[in-house]
Amino acid sequence: MSTKKKICIIGAGPSGLCTAKEIQENNPNIDVKVFEKSDAIGGVFSNCYEGLSLVNNPFLISFSDFPPQDNCDDLRMWKAKEYVDYLNRYAKYNHLLPLIFFNHTVQKINKKGKQWEVCFQKDGDIEIEIFDYLAICSGANHKARKTHLPNQEEFSGEVIYGGNTKKVSGLKGKKVVFVGLGETASDLVYLSRNLVRQSYVSVRRWPGYFIPRYHDNKPTDLDTSNIYHALSRDVDDSRLSFLTSFKRKLEYKNIALQEDKKIQNAMNHFNSSYKSINYLGPFRRVTTKSCGFIKAYLEDKTSLKPEIVNLEGKKVIFKDGSSVLADTIVLCTGNTFNLSFLPDDILDKTSSINKLYKYIFIPDVEHCYFIGFARPNLGSLPSVAELQARYLSAYLKQEIDLPNQEKMQQEILNQQQRFKWQFPVDFERITHLVDYYWYTRLLAKDLNALPKQWRLFFLDIHLWYKVNFSFLYPGIYRLYPHNAKSKKIASIIKKFPTMNKKVLFVETILYLLNKLSKLFSIK
């Protein structure tokens, strides 16, 4: 009689939860254990700064087979606590809580033949357990990226990391310099704008392509479509660029609230400030919804400064020769993953996640998988992680075969070259960056989960229309096989809003012309 295999999933954030769910649901011959170092599920979302707001509407941040609601009445972006509440509902509904072992910190993992020896700390004691498979789901934002400023030891104020700033009340009455302008820095600047004495934001390089979170009280990720994201990635540097420019002007014209127009104007200014890269457009930049900074900037509550080049006492000196006095420097220079528990030879192979086949598999290491490390340029990481988890589950069930090592290495090289070209400014600093639309379709194709366009068109044209002309909802990869769950997802998709019809018309023309230009190789 065959015995069950065992898989150890490290991390009970969104990636770990969907991986546990998919494997438990589809692989009855595998026992699942999830080791979580904290006492709660949610990963970084359960241990973040007060007031954190997500950057996607609930349908984009949720899992495709567990919609946040049955209608589209409330599409505002959740606070972190609301998202953690959703994850708890997901875990309870899918019977995941008995699989999760809280306060279990993985210390070291060793390879033992074809199995894995996992050493973990529990209640102060070190224990060991043997597993057949490993799924690393601890995330790419596990710890703050170490940053050392010039002459930092000479600074007489305090230097703290933004990720460790749980409450902005600690900045009250201080002169603060924020370093970096990603979404964390932007949120902290905005949340502290009426508390600090003075606020400055120092930027060494531009964080990405600015997009606001809302237009007219609606999430901006509703103002897009699958048909638009099917365009060639160099469309902004092609003969069709006049149409993409016209589309964005049309979108701007449709903004009704004057405050939102001011925010969009400021973002347009910053997006076009770097003349050497502004031709790239949003398809070839990582997007960032740093509108908190923009709001504070427009309220004259913060000032933008260049790179810090020196520190003397409390004086902060910038590259343009200007200087300010500061009590606190808040480093918001990004996060990175911590895989120090892995064997050294595997650490070398995972120094960058783009060395993995489909960002999941190490070509020459069996039974060790990575879920939730690919960073999409837009959309949400949990929806990407869920597709990865489905892919892994299908592989473990032997429904998907992997190519040989040589072919995997070639595909890895191809994916690296693709994204180096697509993201020439951002790839080196975010090496696990992927194109959301391209990558999710890549996984969905192997899962036979892509929408069947002609079938949809003839059997349910309303659903076909919403699949193609509404926003990038991952539920479109759950329409098959037909069952009660897929019917519910289809009924929800039919309720989704679409953008202004004039904008959709322009996107349709763009799509058709882009298809023709590729067909006839017109640049």
From TrEMBL:
- Record keywords: NADP included? yes
One GO MF term on file is:
NADP binding
Annotated SUPFAM superfamilies? FAD/NAD(P)-binding domain
Q: What is this protein called?
A: Uncharacterized protein
User: What keywords are assigned to this protein?
Assistant: FAD, Flavoprotein, NADP, Oxidoreductase
Q: Which family does it belong to?
A: Belongs to the FMO family.
What Gene3D superfamilies is this protein classified in?
Answer: FAD/NAD(P)-binding domain
